[in-house]
Design goal:
Deoxyribonuclease I, Chain A, six-stranded mixed sheet
């Protein structure tokens, strides 16, 4: 079974110089529509994006979102899957903290709560099941390592089911968190680690970094991966590039 997936940090808020959410949403729509993915993992989804997502995706995709908090800076990492192609047979989320099953913070040095969202999907074509996870790590080496270790622990709950996780991990390929993640999963884009995924609307600047990934369990084979770097008259859908992958569930 082949799955086309997209991971995209869509930038949570308005930015100047032609990069407000209202200006960027149609660009995101064009990028996603051109690819036509089966599955989408989004990071930095905030209430300002809700109406845009209803307009762009409601007809073709179902969505699971859990905001990481109900107060303060409200943000989520939702998952979308194509209607009619999959049925959700399980779903959930957990926080990166010492109490992951309740809304909580603790590992991000900035103080923000961080969350991982997941859904177990069953193919309408062949009945195969897999788990799709999506996340946005916080900052700080220790917290990122603990977050990676929590993912390793949680994925043992569905070790008999193929799984993969997309997201903005805020961690470079030479980080300790990346080493933990690749100790039990494969980086679908490991042959292109010199590429940039975060550009901050200024490709080529020293702040550019490779921090967005799709990691796969042994039951998932990456067949193709590329950075989504579309521009529209010099403007961008986000301050990140997206990641497109083609995965095979064995």
């Amino acid at each position: 079974m082949l799955l086309k997936t997209v991971s995209f940090n869509i930038r949570c808020c308005d930015d100047p110089d032609g990069h407000s959410v209202a200006e960027r949403a149609p660009r995101l729509d064009k990028v996603i529509s051109k690819i036509g993915p089966d599955l989408i993992g989004i990071q930095e989804f905030t209430p300002i994006w809700e109406d845009h997502f209803k307009r762009i995706f409601d007809g073709e995709y179902e969505m699971l979102n859990k905001y990481r908090s109900q107060t303060g800076w409200i943000e989520g990492s939702p998952l979308l899957w194509r209607r009619g192609k999959f049925t959700a047979t399980g779903r959930g989320w957990f926080w990166y903290s010492d109490t992951p099953d309740v809304e909580s913070g603790g590992w991000d040095v900035t103080g923000h709560k961080r969350i991982c969202t997941y859904v177990k999907l069953k193919s309408a074509d062949n009945g195969r099941e897999f788990v799709f996870m999506n996340t946005h790590f916080g900052f700080g080496e220790e917290g990122q390592v603990k977050s990676a270790e929590l993912i390793r622990a949680r994925t043992k709950d569905f070790s008999d089911t193929p799984f993969f996780i997309t997201g903005d991990f805020n961690a470079a390929p030479d980080s300790k968190a990346y080493s933990v993640l690749t100790s039990f999963m494969k980086d679908a884009n490991e042959t292109d680690l010199n590429s940039v995924t975060y550009h901050g609307y200024r490709p080529g600047s020293p702040e550019n970094a490779h921090i967005d990934y799709c990691f796969c369990s042994p039951g998932v084979m990456p067949l193709d991966a590329r950075i989504i770097d579309d521009r529209f008259n010099g403007k961008f859908p986000s301050d990140h590039f997206g990641l497109y992958t083609v995965l095979e569930i064995k």
